[in-house]
Amino acid sequence: MLTSRPLRLLLTGLVALAVVACGGDDGGDAADTTTTTEVSTEGSSQPAPGDDTTDPAAGDPYEGYTSEVYDSDDTWICRGDLDDDACRDLDVTTIDASGERTVEARSPAEDPPIDCFYVYPTVSSDPGINSDLEFGPDDPETQTVVAQAAQYAQSCRMFAPVYRQVTLEGLGAGGFAEGGEIAYGDALDAWKTYVSKYNDGRGVIVIGHSQGAGILSRLVAEEIDGNPDLADRLVAAHLFGTAVQVPEGEDVGGTFSEIPACTEADEAGCVVTWSSYPTANPPVDGAIFGKAGGDGERALCVDAVGLLGREHGSAVVPVSAPLVGG
Length: 326
Known about the structure:
- By secondary structure, the protein is of the alpha/beta class.
- The chain is built from seven helices and twelve strands.
- α4 packs across α5.
- The longest helix has 24 residues.
- 41% of the residues are buried.
């Protein structure tokens, strides 16, 4: 189902989105050169809606599922049918190696053939171990969704729930043992709601960073891996800043039993994952990210820029939404 030529072209574009680095805010140093361009999709390889990426007859593995939380519009930061969908304004500033900045006008796909389901990293400044379920346009949850995930809406319908994550305060206090199950329970609740109410057999990319990637690694392992009803819909898992485990020398096994590392840009049903460090400051023994989970295992690292046949990626900054901390 997920191997048609149009989908392969789309997958290549989505890997390109995955390597985009988001950062900065509107208060940065003035650029040497600033230009404005309009990004056109005319003549692009965007697949037609429904090209081998949907299965209307697909069963609902969560048939009849209802949620007291995620049946409400108020718990979705991004969902394409919402009037206040935060993944709608996609204008960005690109910065090349010389420092030249180019403002690009971008728009969500009008009728994308696949979906994306995103869980954001640890950003909440709420007091206590777990955050609440409230968010506004200027809150770090919303700003992070816009900065990290909104660009995927050029190619997919974006679903981004708010969830009671372990907060920055909770992280510092070692709160994952106490608060991690609450965070995971919310993400699973939102996932089941999405699949049962909105998916309709469509292909889906799951996307997460840091805490969000850890949550989705567990969700993929427990809900998707080895489950034909959902594994057949998995376009890819983009899991950044976590440690997906594989046996030494292998690209599958460990965290996932049947979902391998992506080795080509147009593969489907695979995982793209890495943890990044500055070249001059590599991880030390005991580093939190990218470490092996046990004897004979290693943290999987997929070079997404290499998959695209490039030497480096591009820097892209949201025009109006800074990353948390500026």
